[in-house]
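Please describe our next protein:
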Amino acid sequence: MSEILFQNETHFCVVFRNLVGGRAVQANQFLIIDGAHSALLDPGGDLTYNQLYLALGKYTSVKSLDYVIASHQDPDIVASINRWLTGTECKVIVPAIWERFIPHFIRSGKDSAERILTIPDEGMRLKIGDGELYALAAHFLHSEGNFQFYDPQSGILFSGDLGANLCPAADLNKPVTRLTQVLPYMTAFHQRYMNGNRVCRLWANMVRGLDIAKIVPQHGRGFEGRAIIELIDWIENLQCGTDLMTQDHYRIPEAA
């Protein structure tokens, strides 16, 4: 399924949800178009590629994608990158820390080095048509080299795994308007996958400086209205990752 998240005369953003069923984790993919230029964010793995390629064709010329962007290195983010390099003329944009790992997803012999661009640790602004996409540092939330993407024209923050909520499929197109609606589907995930409260607080302080209309994570439902502030406040105060570790988590296993 797809949904237009924002649209005006020259600029629009589309989310694709639940293209793959079965045991694979639900994931969202995002298309941003400005004029004749376009970028695909977090395209997913091989399971997603065929259906996503067909779905993109309803909105843009897939062969002429300007960019395929990966927020970090996880398979559900970027395992299909070899097929995008083959099937389109895109440049691939990845965090600099993961540049040397990306070739593990690419078939031996494919000359792709000149098509891979990197995001420095401090982030950057990426030109798409007449607009810009901000790559915002979100390191250790959850990946060591991790970025979120803010589109100032639409006011959408594409937040990656932060805000992910593994909700029922029937609810995916319903925006979250109060955080309590999804807390049962996100608390355990964030406690396990986010690194620690220090980086949560740094992130919250950064994004409060943005004019945010929607926060849309890579998994589950997007956040609108009051839920945006509630999510930022919740992340800021979250105890997670190394905050929760004790000696009991680091002990030699007992004999069977």
About this structure: The first helix runs from residue 46 to 56. The mean pLDDT is 91. The radius of gyration is 18 Å. The first strand starts at residue 2 and ends at 7.
